[in-house]
């Protein structure tokens, strides 16, 4: 029985999908910079989620948005002397290359915010009609937080009421203050040629409304899983819930899953702390992408995980060992029977993954299974049975070379 930890209820819950297809929305990258491997901890966990659901026989539809319009995207494009489109194309391409190097399955839909302005306008109009949004003196349209009683449900914190309005996409230090936030930002000189002429006036969307609009378009007003990094819980996902409630009277997702950030030297890996590595940088240092991925999976996605170069090296060795054992199994011609061993490993692997995707435990199961398989001398049929188990494990983890 698969259990997933739901941030909404703070509990591991038995996973029961709403319909025939498991619908998943995951917050994708902001393409004004390279995604670092801390960001990829989340994207890898989401990939494993999709793979495991499929391995368990579910049909899955996954949407991952590309945030190609937000405050920082505009300032970065200006700094680089590029148009917004040129810059976001560049970083999107880099993101997709990293995804491929990490052997991540593409989402079924990769919607871009700038291509969904009509949907965004529609949902803001609904919010205004329902009394959840208003136009500020500056011409921007804000979400009226005091109108929504359920605010703070996801973060489970008591927030102080404030009177300020926030037009920025990111809120900075005052993040424990309840503030109305911008849904539609009226045009300002600094926005240059980044604007849309719409029924709402000349301007551009806020970041939070983008996800409500795109999730609704592709998955409807209530779907199975909404995922992201823990940093997304507040304010982003809290705002998404508020927006959807205001427009459609319901929380958009049954399960909310959040991946913990990656640590380095006791601090969170982040661009702003200047301690982040991209996959491309690590590859230039001659680390294998799969060894990096192995490290990122070596703890369940909600556990604290520290990044070190020694850690990647150790994981590289473990991978090499696995490949060697697989290679020797392909030439096996002994007599030992492995069916008990296989059965036990498969059962333990499933148990680990069923426990809210405990990839750390699942990897240990695979390592021990490889050790034991390396100690026996199986016959052809048994060797094939072992190899098949490895293929099943790897259909979930996506770490091994094809065999
Ligand atoms: Zn989002």
UniProtKB/TrEMBL annotation:
It is found in: Cytoplasm. It comes from Candidatus Methanoperedens nitratireducens. GO terms for molecular function: ATP binding; cysteine-tRNA ligase activity; metal ion binding. Residues 348-403 form the Cysteinyl-tRNA synthetase class Ia DALR domain. One of its GO terms (cellular component) is cytoplasm. Gene3D superfamilies: Anticodon-binding domain of a subclass of class I aminoacyl-tRNA synthetases, HUPs. Keywords: Aminoacyl-tRNA synthetase, ATP-binding, Coiled coil, Cytoplasm, Ligase, Metal-binding, Nucleotide-binding, Protein biosynthesis, Zinc. SMART domains: DALR_2 (SM00840). The keyword Thylakoid does not apply. Its main location: cytoplasm. InterPro entries: Cys-tRNA-ligase, Cys-tRNA-synt_Ia_DALR, Cys-tRNA/MSH_ligase, Rossmann-like_a/b/a_fold, tRNA-synt_1_cat_dom, tRNAsynth_Ia_anticodon-bd. The lineage of its organism: Archaea, Methanobacteriati, Methanobacteriota, Stenosarchaea group, Methanomicrobia. Its EC number is 6.1.1.16. Belongs to the class-I aminoacyl-tRNA synthetase family. CDD domains: CysRS_core (cd00672). HAMAP family: Cys_tRNA_synth (MF_00041). Residues 312-355 form a coiled coil. ATP binds at residue 271. Its cofactor is Zn(2+). This is Cysteine--tRNA ligase. A motif ('KMSKS' region) lies at residues 268-272. GO terms for biological process: cysteinyl-tRNA aminoacylation. Pfam families: DALR_2, tRNA-synt_1e. It comes from the Archaea.
